[in-house]
Structures are given as structure tokens and as C-alpha cells.
Specification:
The chain is of the alpha+beta class. It is about 10% helix and about 25% strand.
């Protein structure tokens, strides 16, 4: 064909690849430059493709052009494919259209294509996803050209997707609302997030969806900055950076914050799973995946609890805090930071430090129980001092608490046991409790840069020692073994140095060429128990073949040198670029190499030409 005949086809291909490869319109300022179609003003509608994608995908407000979120008329689609849409239909006609078509769900997926209505071209930068697992299509281009995809009618004044139900009428026109296309059109229900969350509990706002009220209770009633993140059967799946703010505070329900969210309706009496999480930026609180029965109209989240209630819980039975979190940080010798105001209603709160050597503390609705030691913390400043703020910028907004002298005198117990900080209201009511991160205190009290592992004694003394830096351990033993495996160990107690946090034991001369492990007792915040673990030395210079025991050996021992080690001439490099360095797996190098004798395949000796020749029965 001649060049003019080929031009429209090439331009159509460019249009489909550059403009229709995404399920939402590209802003004009970001589109690549292209030539106009010769002889026509728009791409041929007959070539509009159907793009197979995950049916649940749709652009979120974070990634969607603002033009897609604004209120605009919906597309007046026809019930049967045609070259152009019929003139604008009335509400009854749209209601009839919404029930027409095949069993497969469809949507107005015009994207950047143009819709012909009343003989005029107009832009419809909207995307509707078909959400059924059967089709798994996103209609891009004119949906009337896609055989088997049912047109989806919508009210002319609200550009939203409505659930698919045979013969159902479209909702009456209403006020504009922001639309978050998260689950597509179809059985997933309404995916419209109205700017106002006012709704009637339990009554469906559209077919296939109903309203659920979510309550959130904190013992200090401070929900400023906290938002709700939703997933699962929630009709709106929130973006992490745009959590839903509370719709209000219900004074008659314990001053609980609440949200009204739309959820899908299950089949018959089947419950639906709704995912809920409270967070403030990256700080997380209550979280639960709740099976909501059709009879439930509310769900309750409390504090940092990882569960939910279907009715208002008794706050006296709810723990005041969480043992699974370490939200407080011990930053230097006497400063603890926690993200809580020091005062409530102009009155000072009470903060306490609790410690249990055996990890027996529990949380109740009235506070911390089972502590061996307890200290009152003195209120510091409402923000970090400059030197700490510069070192820990991520803690902006935290208040500081000061440890008293008697607490510092017991720092050994505090660093090795279960440690909690609690907060009480001015009237004494327990409000919160959390674990404490210790890295700042460890640096302040036990910084160490001396020798570790199997080493010469410090200070020029004769003999050698074995040392381990473990300032949070309650007890450390060295278990000495005769060989790399099997046998029974001889247990040697290790002494603890209070200043450095190092555990040491003198090594006898007959220990050389033997093996050892450490047996350590230490509190684990993850399990909230005193754990006993056995491990090799992190400063090992030699290990047993299986890595299970540390080999007592000097790195400069002549017996470790292979023959010719001292006389081997290292090639001289004129430039570093002359070196070729490869990283490979020992087994992969020769496991399938037929030129290597089978007995050596996957072994170290497969790198040795002499060993290969001898195994093959010939000369190298």
C-alpha cells in the first residue's frame, strides 16, 4: 500500500500502545507527541481492543488524575452494539439498560476514547472495571464494540459504579461524590466513597451493600491523627497514605470515635470478612480481620488490641496497653521517649517503669501486674532536647521521661529483664503501657571495642580467654566439646563484667583444637519469655564442618596452611581491571559436568586438575 494508506494503520497502532495500555487516561501534558490521523479526527472505534487485566484493579485516588475524581455525567450507553451511541436516555430508559445484556459484567470503560452521544464527540476520562472472575477484562475504548460485555448505566449526575443486578434500576441522581474505583463494577458492590460518611446503619445505600459502623476506643480518648484503613469486604479499600478520618465521637458510647463504612452483603446468612486497622502514619494500633454476620451493625476496636468485638466491650477487662509493642525508647543514660503528652486536661499524668526478672508481668484493665521492681518516672520535656532530636529525627513529637537515681542503680536488672512503661490519667486510671527499646541505653552503659572470641588476654597478660559481648543476657555458659560432633560437653561458667557487658572465661592450654558453644539465657520481647539458646561464637575463625560448633584455633596456625602456601607466588597485576573475579556455587560448578569423574562432581576437588586426572586414572 501507498504511504497515505499505511499512515492511519500505523497511527492507530501508536494510539493503542501509547494511550490505551493503561486503565486510566493519561493527562494531555504527559502524552507523547503524535501525528494527527490523516482523513479523520479520532482513532477508528471498530479497532477498540479489550485488554485482559486483573479484574479487581482500578486506579486509586493517589494514582488517579484529579479529573477522574471530579463530578461529571455518565456515559449514556446502548443495549446493543452500534457504531454510535443513541441520544441521551431518560432515567427509566437507563434503568432498563442496566438490566440488559449478557451474564458477564461490563462497564463504561471508555478511558481516553471518545463517546458519541447525540451526534457530538465528548471526552469521558472514566474507567469502570468488570469485576467478575469469569471475564477478567477491563474494557478500554468503546464498550459497545465488545461483544458479550453488558453496558452499565449510571445516573447522569453521579459518575459512580453501581452493583450488577439483573433488572435493577439505577440510583436516582444525587449530589457529587468522590469516587474510588477499587474493586470495579459488578458483584463487589458500591465502590463510591462519599465525602460525608453520614449513613443509616444497617440500611443498604445500594443493592449488594450495607453500612457498618466501626467504633474505636482508647483509654485516653485521644484519637487525633488516627485514621482507619480498610480492606476485604469493605467497599472502599483505602490507600495507606489516605486513611479515613473519624466521622465523629459518640459521647453516649464511651466517647468512642466512629466510622460508617459500606461493606458487601454475603450470600444468605454467610458472614463477610472485613479488614480494619487504625494507624497514624506508620504508627499502628488496633487491627483485626472480622467475620461480620449479616445481623451485626457495628464492630469495636480497642487500643492496640489485635482483635475486635461485635458489641461494646467492658473496658475494665481490656488490657491498658500492649505487651507485644515496644513504643517507648530508652535513648541515653536517663532519658526515655514515648509518644504521649505529659498532661491531660492541664493536669500531669503519672508514668511508671516496671521490671520483672522472670518475665511474669501481665496487663489488665487496671494496669501492670507481676512486677519485681517499679519506679516513678519524672516528666521531662514535651519534645526531645536538641542533641537527641538531631540523633533521632524520627522521634519528633515524643515526650521525654527521666529515670530517678534508684532506677539507674538497678540498671543491670532493667536491661536483662522484662521492662514496661505505663501511663495513668491524673485521676489514677490506667491508660496505656508498652515495652521499651534498649539500644540507646546499651550504647550509653556498655559501649565496648575490646577483643572478643578466642583471643589473647587484654593488658599484655599471658594466656588466652574466650569472651562474648552480651549485655542483656542473664546468664552465659561455655560448653566445651572434644570433637566437631557427638560427645558430652564440659560446662564452664562465664563471668560478667558490669562496665562492658562482656562475659569471659580463661581458656586452658588443652582447649586448643577443641570445640565450644555458648548457652545463653536472655529475655526475648517477641515471645515475652526468658529464652535459652545455644549458639556458636560470632567471632569464630574456624567452625566444624556443619557450622554447629566453634573450633578453637589461631588463624595463623601453620597447620592450617596448605602445602606451598608460604612459597606461592601471587601474580602481579598491572591494573585491577586485569583481574577476572567470579562468584559461583561449589556444587553447581561441576555437578552436571561429564568431564569430571562422578566421585568429584559437586566437590572442592573438582577445581583441582591434578585430582581430576588421578580420579580418572591418567596423568594431569
Amino acid at each position: 500500500p501507498s504511504e497515505p494508506d499505511r499512515a492511519p494503520q500505523r497511527e492507530d497502532t501508536e494510539a493503542r500502545t501509547s494511550r490505551r495500555s493503561l486503565p486510566f487516561p493519561i493527562p494531555r501534558s504527559l502524552r507523547p507527541a503524535r501525528r494527527r490521523f490523516r482523513g479523520r479526527s479520532q482513532p477508528p472505534l471498530a479497532r477498540s481492543p479489550v485488554l485482559p487485566v486483573r479484574s479487581s484493579y482500578a486506579p486509586t485516588p493517589q494514582h488517579t488524575p484529579q479529573s477522574m475524581l471530579a463530578h461529571r455525567p455518565a456515559c449514556p450507553t446502548a443495549a446493543t452494539p452500534n457504531a454510535a451511541h443513541p441520544p441521551r436516555s431518560t432515567a427509566p430508559q437507563r434503568a432498563a439498560l442496566s438490566g440488559a445484556g449478557s451474564g458477564l459484567g461490563g462497564g463504561c470503560g471508555l478511558g481516553p476514547a471518545r463517546c458519541v452521544a447525540s451526534g457530538a464527540l465528548r471526552r469521558l476520562p472514566r474507567v469502570c472495571a468488570a469485576s467478575t472472575a469469569a471475564d477478567r477484562f477491563l474494557s478500554i475504548g468503546c464498550p459497545l464494540k465488545q461483544q458479550g460485555l453488558r453496558p452499565l448505566a449510571a445516573a447522569a449526575s453521579a459518575a459512580a459504579c453501581y452493583p450488577r443486578s439483573s433488572g435493577s434500576a439505577a440510583p436516582a441522581p444525587g449530589p457529587p461524590s468522590r469516587t474510588s474505583l477499587r474493586r470495579g463494577c459488578g458483584g463487589g458492590g458500591v465502590v463510591r466513597a462519599a465525602e460525608s460518611q453520614a449513613a443509616t446503619l444497617g440500611s443498604p445505600s445500594s443493592a449488594g451493600a450495607r453500612t457498618l459502623r466501626v467504633f474505636y476506643l482508647k483509654k485516653d480518648h485521644n484519637v487525633q491523627g488516627w485514621g482507619l484503613h480498610t480492606w476485604g469486604a469493605a467497599s472502599v479499600h483505602t490507600d495507606w497514605s489516605a486513611a479515613l478520618p473519624p466521622a465523629g465521637i459518640d459521647a453516649s458510647r464511651g466517647r468512642a470515635a466512629f466510622w460508617d463504612i459500606e461493606i458487601s452483603v454475603g450470600d444468605g446468612d454467610a458472614p463477610v470478612m472485613v479488614g480494619l486497622m487504625l494507624h497514624r502514619g506508620e504508627e499502628k494500633a488496633a487491627r483485626a480481620e472480622v467475620l461480620v454476620p449479616p445481623t451485626a451493625s457495628e464492630v469495636w476496636l480497642v487500643g492496640n488490641e489485635q482483635t475486635a468485638w461485635l458489641e461494646q466491650p467492658d473496658m475494665a477487662a481490656v488490657p491498658a496497653g500492649s505487651l507485644t509493642k515496644q513504643a517507648a525508647l530508652w535513648l541515653d543514660a536517663d532519658t526515655i521517649a514515648w509518644r504521649h503528652p505529659l498532661e491531660e486536661g492541664g493536669k500531669k499524668r503519672r508514668f511508671r517503669l516496671h521490671c520483672a526478672a522472670g518475665a511474669g508481668m501481665k496487663l489488665t484493665g487496671s494496669g501492670v501486674t507481676g512486677a519485681d521492681l517499679e519506679f516513678d518516672l519524672q516528666p521531662g520535656s514535651p519534645s526531645l532536647p536538641p542533641q537527641l532530636a538531631e540523633k533521632h529525627p524520627y522521634l519528633a513529637g515524643c515526650s521525654t521521661l527521666k529515670l530517678p537515681a534508684d532506677a539507674l542503680a538497678a540498671k543491670r536488672a532493667l536491661l536483662t529483664g522484662q521492662l514496661l512503661v505505663s501511663m495513668a490519667a491524673p485521676d489514677g486510671a490506667a491508660e496505656d503501657a508498652t515495652g521499651v527499646q534498649l539500644h540507646g541505653a546499651i550504647d550509653a552503659f556498655h559501649a565496648y571495642d575490646g577483643p572478643l572470641g578466642y583471643h589473647d588476654k587484654a593488658g599484655g597478660g599471658s594466656g588466652r580467654a574466650v569472651s562474648l559481648w552480651a549485655p542483656t543476657a542473664q546468664r552465659v555458659e561455655l560448653r566445651l566439646w572434644e570433637g566437631p560432633s557427638g560427645g558430652e560437653p564440659v560446662v564452664h561458667a562465664m563471668a560478667h563484667d558490669e562496665a562492658s557487658g562482656v562475659w569471659s572465661v580463661d581458656a586452658q592450654e588443652d582447649w586448643y583444637n577443641k570445640y565450644y558453644t555458648y548457652r545463653i539465657e536472655v529475655y526475648c520481647p517477641f515471645t515475652q519469655k526468658i529464652e535459652v539458646t545455644e549458639t556458636t561464637d560470632p567471632y569464630s575463625v574456624s567452625l566444624a564442618a556443619d557450622g554447629a560448633r566453634t573450633h578453637i584455633m589461631r588463624i595463623d596456625d601453620p597447620s592450617l596452611r596448605p602445602p606451598g602456601w608460604d612459597t606461592h607466588a601471587i601474580p602481579h597485576l598491572h591494573q585491577w581491571t586485569d583481574a577476572s573475579i567470579y562468584e559461583l556455587h561449589i556444587r553447581d560448578f561441576s555437578a552436571t559436568d561429564a568431564s569430571v569423574p562422578e566421585a568429584l562432581r559437586g566437590k572442592y576437588l573438582a577445581f583441582d586438575p591434578q585430582a581430576i586426572a588421578e580420579a580418572a586414572g591418567g596423568a594431569p
